[in-house]
Specification:
The protein is α/β, with parallel strands linked by helices. The chain has helices at about 10-15, 50-55, 70-80; strands spanning about 1-5, 25-30, 40, 45, 60-65, 85, 90, 95, 105, 110, 115, 120, 125-130, 135, 140, 145, 150, 155-160, 165, 170, 175, 180, 185-190, 195-200, 205. The strands form 4 sheets. It has an 8-stranded mixed sheet with strand order 7-10-13-16-19-22-24-25, with no helix packed on it. A 6-stranded mixed sheet has the order 3-4-2-1-5-6. The longest helix has 13 residues, at about 70-80.
């Protein structure tokens, strides 16, 4: 498997994988950061070019997104798919995921301690960071990011490409429009229009 990125989130994602299992072949990919070593932790090779990624995908097409950012994740995923890769999910073993009526699309990162309730839906390419949670009947759009400790309460609708900051809370029945950002620690008590940044308690548009 190829993990896209070789920095912060990528090395946290590595904690969700059993690197001791027989036959495990994990590599990283970073074609933008200068002066990287040849390997990460002296063990995992770092690929530096599209040609190397394409050659790997010829016999091992799976890759996971090891970087944050909503539109960045989207663009990188489609770039690697064009090289022959197949986007897959990585789910921490101690994440709590509902068994009934829950839908998980592909390409997700579900990190340690994340919570997804029954009757919830997570869109393609989204990231639920450590301790983030979404409750019953929440719909989380494509390529969203829930920062550590973010909490979305029941029946909320979160549009594509939204970022919910660390320890923010979205109260029940709220709609967050596509491309919006909720600041760290904010408490959202009313709907947020598309493309809006809100901060504070209660959350208000950033001016």
């Amino acid at each position: 498997m190829l993990i896209i990125g070789a920095g912060g989130h990528a090395i946290e994602l590595l904690q969700c994988l059993d690197t001791r299992a027989e036959g495990v072949d994990i590599r990283f990919y970073d074609d933008v950061t200068p002066d990287l070593p040849a390997t990460l932790f002296g063990r995992f090779p770092i690929l530096r070019s599209e040609a190397e990624a394409r050659a790997l995908f010829a016999h091992d097409p799976e890759f996971a997104l090891g970087l944050g950012g909503t539109t960045v994740r989207f663009k990188v995923a489609h770039k690697l798919e064009a090289l022959g890769g197949r986007l897959v999910s990585i789910v921490a073993g101690n994440a709590i995921i509902g068994e009934y009526g829950t839908t998980l699309e592909h390409g997700l990162n579900i990190m340690p301690g994340a919570f997804i309730a029954n009757e919830a839906r997570v869109g393609e390419g989204s990231l639920l960071n450590t301790g983030a949670g979404m409750h019953h009947h929440v719909v989380l759009g494509r390529y969203c990011e829930l920062a550590p400790g973010a909490r979305i309460l029941g029946r909320c609708q979160i549009g594509d490409f939204c970022l919910i900051g660390a320890n923010a809370t979205i109260m029940p029945d709220i709609t967050i429009g596509e491309g919006s950002t909720v600041g760290a620690g904010a408490v959202v008590t009313r709907n947020v229009p598309p493309g809006t940044t809100v901060v504070g308690i209660p959350a208000r548009p950033l001016r």
